[in-house]
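User: Quick one: structure for sequence A, then sequence B.

Assistant: Sequence A:
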Amino acid sequence: MPVGLPEFVENPENRCPVILLLDTSNSMAGEPIQELSRGVEVFKQDTLKDSKAALSVEVAIVAFGPVRLVQDFTTIDQLTPPELVADGLTPMGEAIDYSLALLEARKETYKENGIQYYRPWIFLITDGAPTDGWQGAAEKIRAGEAARKFCFFAVGVEGADMKTLSQIAPAERPPLLLKGLDFSPMFVWLSTSMKRVSSSKVGEALALPPVEWGQITT
């Protein structure tokens, strides 16, 4: 009988994988990057209030500008919220491709260790426009959504190219424009959603809490 990785032996709970795909390009310098870092801390602390979610929610953080893995998948209790630094351009297409590959590798690890997992979430936050080719990544998003491989969310901060984001995000889940720079309500919403997911059965459809922190642009 194969021996599983220690992290799964010690904690065999079903996993809720979520990738925070964060724009850390130069345009996020100053208050935006500070508020975004604070929001990640809010996400951790709020999720930890639910003992089941604390064992199930796994977070990875991918920053882009340039693309880098800030935090590989870890359960929320082991997450040390990073101090994000603004730098570089906005290679959004490359960042999405990287995140999709990271997610597929993690799903394989779950399977090899006999761990069930909920439909993963990819949560993109940006204040700009892609500075690289994004069309191929957008096609992968649409195909992955259609195959129910993951749920993709796109959030624009003031200044974001919402028109392009609407072409990247799945049609049934259009991008949302954050109200100001108040990331905390958005991360509380994300935490609340993860709590609901972790309390459900794998594959079960469930209603998400209402979005009060952003709006759909037209």
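Sequence B:
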Amino acid sequence: MKAWIAFWNILLKDMKNYYLKPPNISWGIIFSISWTLMFFLRSNTTIDIRGILPGIMAMSVLFGTTSMLAVTITFERKSRSFERLLLAPINLNLLMMAKTTGAIIFGVLNAFVPVVFALFWVQLSGVDWIIVILSVLLLAVTSTFLGLFIAVSVSEVFEAQTFSNFFRFPMLFLCGLFIPVSQLPVLFRPISYIIPLTYGVDILKDAINREGHIHPAISFLVLIAFGLLLFSFSIRNVKRKWII
């Protein structure tokens, strides 16, 4: 079997079975719309909307990717359909890439929902869109691999959701999204710098508002390193737990 045919068919199956289902669209897209409007309608000045836009985009990516992937992998593992994929003549790395690509696409689309709404309120002139697209893509990849790491570490869907929240909510408050990292208590600042979301949010702040405090090249390298590390740990766990 040609690798690209296997990759495409696994991706297509996941898109039809999971990502394009009405409940997932409502949870993923409409959820992003809801909290985008919640934040934007609360703001009365244009500077507020541009200021909070990077954070809302990062939140949309984080929740969209981790929720979807953690549930889909765990569900397939529970129904034993994932075992059939493991028996297919396809490289394990390629198989896991095919399983995660749908979540990455879903995360990238989620990230631009707040941007569409922001255009109704403010001018987004001066935004470095190339950096925005690259950072959203890398953030989606890293968040998806975090979801993969969670999915291969548990056996039940409810465990995946609980484990996801164990990572997600502390990250929201420590990544500089609500409070700049420089204003966090000294005790928490080192923790902020071991969270991938901190680097994704900082790149977006720099590209949209020129407010980043980490050089974008460093943030890109750190996100790539986090992605490779999480993917490697996930593959190791799959081989150790699911392949005898």
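DSSP finds ten helices and no strands in the chain. The chain has a mean pLDDT of 83.

User: Thanks, that's what I needed.
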